[in-house]
Specification:
heterodimer; A: alpha+beta; Ubiquitin-like (UB roll); five-stranded mixed sheet; 2 helices; 22% strand; B: 281 residues; alpha/beta
């Protein structure tokens, strides 16, 4: 089992859970497993083509998956998958 | 040459704890006194950053903000007090900073930071400290610092979480766009005004921004270049991730498509708030 670390802005999707353990042999299947348990994550992480969104970062342990194998990155037991969304207050309507 | 040589008696007293640190000493303190830092925003992050940089004796501290002080700022923006409500933030910031250390040339800049003004505003300074919290200004600061070859200290906050990095992207060590090639769509990210911010959080991240700035200026230790620090206050944990240059980065990658400053408000689809406003709000 690998472990997702859920950032504050997305914890409302995980019922407040900070970490979620999932199965899956690669990052894509791990995201599927996370979304099956807590629906909504897939839409947050992937665009309509199924690619990682440009304003969300996913790290496998301490490496940016976008610079490596992307969604096909192999996930092993004990790996930590961190979801890192861009945060800023700027969307306030003015 | 003794570490105190060239300092006035007041300065020897003021900087005594720096002067006895081998990593700073007289040479380092002199270096600080001849250094300049531009702070973007006199808000939650900018307040502690500006105060520590000024107390440390950075020779020139510029601070950009067009906003005025609001009562809701006082929960975390220590540069301002109740008598400053309704007044320009740079005014109270300058007063507070000058009271901390008369050695420092404090430059209040009550101007809009945008694509027309950024390059000229950044040019006179050694390093830029980004205490803004809105996407148009953050990408603008990232790009302008890159084009000028200047290091940029990045901090951001949200509720109980903070992030820290030092981008020196002209040296091929990655930039904000390497992490986040595009801004999130308008309305998809909650603002601090909507989601709240734990008041001490910008104190922690802003102080670390000052820490990294001074380390960089004095070449002390290992800088936060190529590293991305995440602070999770609810767990009181720090985690470090690798920040690498993205070869596909539109700014600092192999085939850059961003070659000059753009219209960031249009690109992000949201109006840029004043530098501290979002961090403040």
């Amino acid at each position: 089992m690998a472990q997702f670390r859920i950032p504050g802005p997305l914890r409302r999707l995980s019922n407040g859970e900070i970490t979620v353990e999932v199965g899956g042999s690669d990052l894509g299947s791990a995201i599927d497993a996370l979304d099956a348990r807590y629906p909504g994550f897939k839409d947050r992480l992937l665009d309509e083509r199924g690619e990682l969104r440009q304003f969300v970062n996913v790290y496998l342990n301490d490496e940016d998956v976008r610079l490596g194998s992307g969604l096909s990155a192999k996930v092993a037991d004990g790996d930590e998958i961190s979801i890192i969304p861009a945060v800023a207050g700027g969307a306030r309507a003015t | 040459m003794g570490p105190a040589r060239g300092f006035t008696p007041d300065q020897v007293a003021r900087y005594a704890r720096h002067l006895i640190l081998p990593e700073v000493g007289g040479a380092g303190q002199r270096k600080l006194l001849s250094s300049s830092v531009l702070l973007l925003g006199a808000g939650g992050l900018g307040s502690p950053a500006a105060m520590y940089l000024t107390a440390a004796g950075v020779g020139k501290v510029g601070i950009v903000d067009f906003d005025t002080v609001d009562a809701s700022n006082l929960q975390r923006q220590l540069l301002h007090g109740i008598n400053d409500i309704g007044r320009p933030k740079v005014e109270s910031a300058a007063r507070t900073l000058r009271n901390l250390n008369p050695d420092v040339e404090v430059v209040p800049i009550r101007e809009h930071l945008n694509s027309d003004t950024a390059m000229e505003m950044f040019a006179p300074y050694d390093i830029i400290v980004d205490g803004t919290d809105n996407f148009p200004t953050r990408y603008l600061a990232n790009d302008a610092a890159h084009f000028l070859g200047k290091p940029l200290v990045h901090g951001s906050i949200f509720r109980f979480e903070g992030r820290l990095a030092l981008f020196d992207s002209s040296k091929g060590t990655g930039c904000y766009r390497c992490l986040f090639p595009e801004p999130p769509p308008p309305g998809s990210v909650q603002s601090c005004a909507e989601a709240g911010v734990f008041g001490v959080l910008p104190g922690i991240i802003g102080s670390m921004m000052a820490f990294e700035t001074i380390k960089y200026l004095l070449d002390i230790g290992r800088p936060m270049i190529g590293r991305y620090l995440l602070f999770e206050g609810e767990d009181m944990t720090f985690r470090e991730l690798k920040l690498r240059q993205n070869k596909a980065c539109p700014l600092c990658g192999e085939n850059p498509t961003v070659r000059s400053l753009i219209d960031y408000e249009a690109w992000c689809g949201v109006p840029a708030m004043e530098p501290s406003e979002a961090a403040a709000s």
